[in-house]
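Ops channel
N.P.: pipeline sanity check, posting one input/output pair.
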């Protein structure tokens, strides 16, 4: 299911991260997207599904072992994916412990046709390593050397932050996949 998110839906990126300076906790605008595709081909041995998007492009995805009703998916079936993403940022106090956790849940639809819901939540603590007021942008470093740079629209909030500040970034994504039989 996770690869279906990558294949069908462009993942939203963290934006306006500096807004955490205005409050201890800040929710970056949540996003809900719906994408559809038609099953073009299925390789049962590798569990690979090729999907054709409405714009005529193709994307391949692998249905992992959590997709229990894989054998019921047929060429011509319509796949609909509703994707939700939310990011919450929290400015940490200097002595507060950091986080690096992840959890994932997958639930079958319980309907006559295959489908289901998967949700993932990841919390990491990142350190602001650079702020460039000329761009304006902010750069974070997180666990295992992870680095991320983003342009920032709210320059007033950005001006209140400093390199060395730490933030918890809680990223939640959920996807509901439903399949309708082809014509």
């Amino acid at each position: 299911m996770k690869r279906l998110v990558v294949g069908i839906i462009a993942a939203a990126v963290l934006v306006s991260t500096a807004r955490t300076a205005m409050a201890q906790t800040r929710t970056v605008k949540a996003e809900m997207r719906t994408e559809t595709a038609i099953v073009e081909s299925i390789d049962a041995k590798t569990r690979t599904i090729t999907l054709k998007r409405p714009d005529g492009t193709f994307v391949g995805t692998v249905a992992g072992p959590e997709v229990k009703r894989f054998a019921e998916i047929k060429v011509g079936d319509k796949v609909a994916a509703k994707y939700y993403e939310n990011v919450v940022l929290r400015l940490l106090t200097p002595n507060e412990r950091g986080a690096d956790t992840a959890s994932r849940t997958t639930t079958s639809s319980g309907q006559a046709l295959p489908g289901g819901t998967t949700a993932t939540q990841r919390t990491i603590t990142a350190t602001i390593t650079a702020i460039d007021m000329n761009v304006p942008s902010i750069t974070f470093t997180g666990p295992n050397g992870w680095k991320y740079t983003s342009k920032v629209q709210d320059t007033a909030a950005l001006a209140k932050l400093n390199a060395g500040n730490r933030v918890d970034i809680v990223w939640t994504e959920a996807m509901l996949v439903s399949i309708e039989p082809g014509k």
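N.P.: looks fine end to end. Residues 1-23 have pLDDT under 50 and may be disordered.
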